[in-house]
UniProtKB/TrEMBL annotation:
GO cellular component terms, A-Z: cytoplasmic side of plasma membrane; cytosol; IRE1-TRAF2-ASK1 complex; receptor complex
Lineage: Eukaryota, Metazoa, Chordata, Craniata, Vertebrata
E.C. designation(s): 2.3.2.27
Source organism per UniProt: Paramormyrops kingsleyae
Family: Belongs to the TNF receptor-associated factor family. A subfamily.
Protein name: TNF receptor-associated factor
A family per Pfam: TRAF2_zf
Molecular-function GO terms, alphabetical: lipid binding; protein-macromolecule adaptor activity; tumor necrosis factor receptor binding; ubiquitin protein ligase activity; zinc ion binding
């Protein structure tokens, strides 16, 4: 039975699948007679040949068309070998047979296997090993790498200039940078950076470090100076410039008195035209003309002499002002140095005061001391980096007039505990009342890392070795520290440790006061 049209729900968006997906030999009944691929949503024409629904629609889109397969096989029949959009029907039997065929992904590197139906529904268009042409450069790229290729590697990808916002392809980026009017340029003279190209000519004219020729170069001055020093050069070289000008005027006067011809190569830009050479001039007229020119030159020289005198006075005034300015600068520099010394002394006094206040704040006089250490993570990183391997606690006392002591902590360990343990040491310090105390120090010392759940504190205790220099009467500010290099494994402070809460740990020291 011939159907009037294709079923409305039929998906005809794609042509046949590649033959390479089949794990069985390709047979003619599985092949589209137009695209030669594995039939996708097959339809059958009245002549019996099968086509992909997409291919049949394409073939009949411009009207009825003879079946090329019938012509090739020489079985063309006028009544049934004409393809029309209305005379093909979905071949569900062929579709079910093809969808059940074993298949595998043809993409190199992909291990997917299944049946044709699963390939079409689940894998096709999703395989990360499939190579897809880049829309910009048309090179085949793995699907999994297409986004990275389009964003970072494609030579034809479109970029926007971050300076002028113009669009161009990646391969033209260098060419665009050469002409972009917003592109930042660095001035080689003054070193200023990020000058837009369109404003660089204006900067070059005003740049104080750009090199310019002296305005008197036309008279022979060969000095080339920085733009900001041009005025200074003109002031310091007034005499030289006037000498050059006077030399030039003398040359002009000499030429004026010379009855010979003026030559263009004299360097003065003077030239007598040929008709002037041929014009007869009376001796009296020539003499009068030369006298007038001489008088004019003498007047110019007088004016120049006055200018030299005025410039000399100006230079002398500048010199006096310069000396005064230097004296003021020296006085100000002395005042600044005095203020810096005063500030340094104040800083030292302030530091000492802060230290005393801190000692008073944390100081105890009963031999028991709790040391709160905050910012543990930051301090540990500083210890790992070697910037602050050890830290000292504030001082504490056995009594108001007793032994002065403190703790020394290595957050990354010390000695045998380096890198694996917290190392905690007890330090006897030099106190004001040491002369009244019993030496060597011999009191039992207990060191604790407090469990903030109040359950299992880490405790270590020791009695001082009275023969050790660490417990003799201090000569310097502190004796050599003595204690526990393997006090606490660092592993106990990792994760959700009850010893480390809110980036804070607590260490407690107890000095046995028995016998004091």
């Amino acid at each position: 039975m011939t159907m009037a049209s294709l079923a409305p729900a039929l998906d005809i968006a794609a042509a046949g699948m590649p033959q390479q997906i089949l794990s069985v030999p390709m047979q003619n009944k599985y092949q589209c007679q137009h695209c030669s691929g594995v039939l996708r949503k097959p339809v059958q024409a009245p002549c019996g040949h099968r086509f992909c629904a997409h291919c049949h629609k394409f073939l009949t889109s411009s009207g009825p068309k003879p079946c090329e397969a019938c012509q090739t096989e020489e079985i063309f029949e006028a009544e049934i070998s004409i393809l029309k959009s209305s005379n093909a029907f979905p071949d569900n039997a062929a579709r079910r047979e093809i969808e059940g065929l074993p298949a595998s992904c043809p993409s190199e590197g992909c291990n997917w296997k299944g049946i044709v139906k699963d390939y079409e529904v689940q894998h096709e268009g999703k395989c990360k090993y499939e190579r897809i042409p880049c829309k910009a450069c048309h090179l085949p790229v793995l699907r999994s790498e297409l986004e990275r290729h389009s964003d970072r590697e494609c030579e034809e990808r479109t970029l926007n200039c971050k300076y002028c916002k113009a669009s161009f392809s990646f391969r033209d980026i260098k060419a665009h940078d050469e002409v972009c009017q917003k592109f930042p340029i660095q001035c080689k003279d003054c070193g200023k950076k990020k000058i837009p190209r369109e404003k660089f000519p204006e900067h070059s004219r005003s740049c104080g470090k750009s090199k310019v020729s002296c305005p008197f170069s036309v008279l022979g001055c060969r000095t080339v100076v920085e733009n900001e020093k041009q005025t200074e050069h003109e002031h310091s070289s007034i005499s030289e410039h006037l000498r050059l000008l006077l030399d030039r005027l003398c040359q002009i006067q000499q030429l004026a008195e010379d009855p010979g011809e003026w030559q263009e190569d004299s360097g003065l830009g003077l030239y007598r035209a040929p008709e002037e050479k041929e014009t007869p001039v009376s001796g009296v007229g020539q003499t009068t003309s030369l006298e007038q020119k001489t008088t004019a030159l003498e007047n110019i020289v007088c004016v120049l002499n006055r200018e030299v005198e005025r410039s000399s006075f100006t230079l002398e005034a500048f010199s006096r002002q310069h000396r005064l300015d230097q004296e003021k600068i020296e006085n100000l520099a002395n005042k600044i140095r005095q203020m810096e010394r005063t500030l340094t002394l104040r800083d030292i006094q302030l530091t000492e005061t802060e230290q005393k206040v801190q000692e008073l704040e944390f100081c105890t006089y009963d031999g028991v001391f709790v040391w709160k250490i905050t910012d543990f993570a930051r301090r540990r990183q500083e210890a790992l980096a070697g910037r602050s391997p050890a830290m000292f606690s504030p001082a504490f006392f056995s009594s108001k007039y007793g032994y002065k002591m403190c703790l020394r902590l290595y957050l990354n360990g010390d000695g045998t505990g380096r890198g694996t343990h917290l190392s905690l040491f007890f330090v006897v310090m030099k106190g004001k009342y040491d002369a009244l105390l019993k030496w060597p120090f011999s009191q039992k010392v207990t060191l604790m890392l407090l469990d903030q759940n109040n359950r299992e504190h880490i405790i270590d205790a020791f009695r001082p070795d009275v023969n050790s220099s660490s417990f003799q009467r201090p000569i310097n500010e502190m004796n050599i520290a003595s204690g526990c290099p393997l006090f606490c494994p660092l592993a106990k402070l990792a994760g959700k440790s009850s010893y480390l809460r809110d980036d804070t740990i607590f260490i407690k020291a107890i000095v046995d006061l028995t016998g004091l």
